[in-house]
Amino acid sequence: MIKVAIVGYGNIGKAVYEAVSQSEDMKLVVIVSSKKNIAGAPVVDSIHALGAVDVAIICSPSRTVPGIASDLLARGISTVDSYDIHSSIVNVRARLDVIAKENGSVAITAAGWDPGSDSVIRTLFSAMIPKGITYTNFGPGMSMGHTVAVKAIPGVKDALSMTIPAGTGIHRRMVYIELEPGADFAEVADAIKQDDYFVHDETHVFQVDSVNSLKDMGHGVNLVRKGVSGTTHNQRVEFNMSINNPALTGQILVSAARAASKQEPGCYTMIEIAPIDFLPGNPEQLIRQLV
Amino acid sequence: MIKVAIVGYGNIGKAVYEAVSQSEDMKLVVIVSSKKNIAGAPVVDSIHALGAVDVAIICSPSRTVPGIASDLLARGISTVDSYDIHSSIVNVRARLDVIAKENGSVAITAAGWDPGSDSVIRTLFSAMIPKGITYTNFGPGMSMGHTVAVKAIPGVKDALSMTIPAGTGIHRRMVYIELEPGADFAEVADAIKQDDYFVHDETHVFQVDSVNSLKDMGHGVNLVRKGVSGTTHNQRVEFNMSINNPALTGQILVSAARAASKQEPGCYTMIEIAPIDFLPGNPEQLIRQLV
What we know:
2 copies of one chain form a homodimer.
Chain A: E1 2-7, H1 11-21, E2 26-32, E3 43-44, E4 55-58, H2 65-74, E5 78-81, H3 89-103, E6 106-108, H4 117-128, E7 131-138, E8 141-142, H5 144-151, E9 156-165, E10 171-179, H6 185-194, E11 203-207, E12 218-229, E13 232-244, H7 245-260, E14 266-268, H8 283-290
Parallel strand pairs in A: 1-2, 1-4, 2-3, 4-5, 5-6, 6-14, 10-11
Antiparallel strand pairs in A: 7-12, 8-9, 9-10, 12-13
């Protein structure tokens, strides 16, 4: 049994809890959270009180991940995370790799769906079709980053920014806002459209009575590649998904926690791990079923 | 530079030749074929005359693959193949694994598109959605096995069996035949429909003047999984492709030849290999581009 800790208990932490509960090869040992009453597992309020675990699944905001992972890896505890700041992944991986190797632990970073399973798909598509263009189209689904950016604009009481795929990696932004008393809708809408997050995209802003009543954790991806295998053109591959966002992220983190127990010390992204390692069970049986 | 041999020069061998010619990290050293005049590379008529190569890409019929691979692996030459007899893959892998480990060589078996890239997709989908059903739908495209089965029926001069996807892993068979002089179409059509290859599928048989004029190397896949991540239902993922069949098989074999140069001795299927290993170039640069 793989002894698991969950670090952070928001939407992703809860989804990880559910996925661990369905995994016969894992045992949840402890949850790190400031919340006191979580049914089903002991709760501690600091990663320094974790105790004996094999792997910690880090479910805290991305900016806090490198620090927490570094602490845990240095104590010989393996980590998995869904760190999603694409531009920093190479540096975080390099930093965690040194600590993991020095302390005999394993880190799997950027193990969500993008970065994560989408990265595996993009890599496989490039191996099948080395020349050509890949487009990753997101949505329809809520963008956390864009929603936070709207909420920071003066006059906005609550907001939701939906990402709508328009093809070829271009996205439309549908923004729903509640206004503060006295705020002017036209002024606020203009400020949103001028924001760095929105200025390059087609953006529509709508005033609503209740942002909360629009929220839905569904999301989607359409990932396409068209190009050349060998010297043969017009080779086409496509990946589509329609999923509950935290549920998929939580499940991939749990599958990655299993894979962590099978790697040599070091830090890995998902494209550096044999896909079979994410699954429980006997390798020959898995090969019989899946190959 | 990875020194490559191509063993067998039919449709797949030619596609491998083209894909190697586009790979800057590979050099084609020799082709094993009974054909004498192949432009661009020295030709020998036996695998015993291969000389110094790093990896041999086996492009001969599946039933001949285990014997050829065993011979080469025993001489320290790594091999890749697209062996496609699903029920025997586990046994072939076990047999080649012993020989490879004894001789410091690497084998990658079943490295086409199904088995092969489809296997990687099925494995990733299971890691994302552990509970549920996966359907692999093939076509429209020519089935080699079914076509050979039709050709073996008395009265058939030439034949083509097309696989048509009907969803949920069910396939329709569209069979086009030229008759031998004096053969009775109704009798032959009935014999085809009673054949083991066709008796369980919806099968339609058509008499045509020229089977050859219908042949097209295009093929397709629609691979879908619907199920449960953690405790959340109705998670949906899908993979589609529309490709030239030998061109994709040849390209995957060449990508696998590259991966072979990065593995420890032993025999692997594609789901046992980190996807990044199929690609040329610096790992950090690939992570930056793809993760």
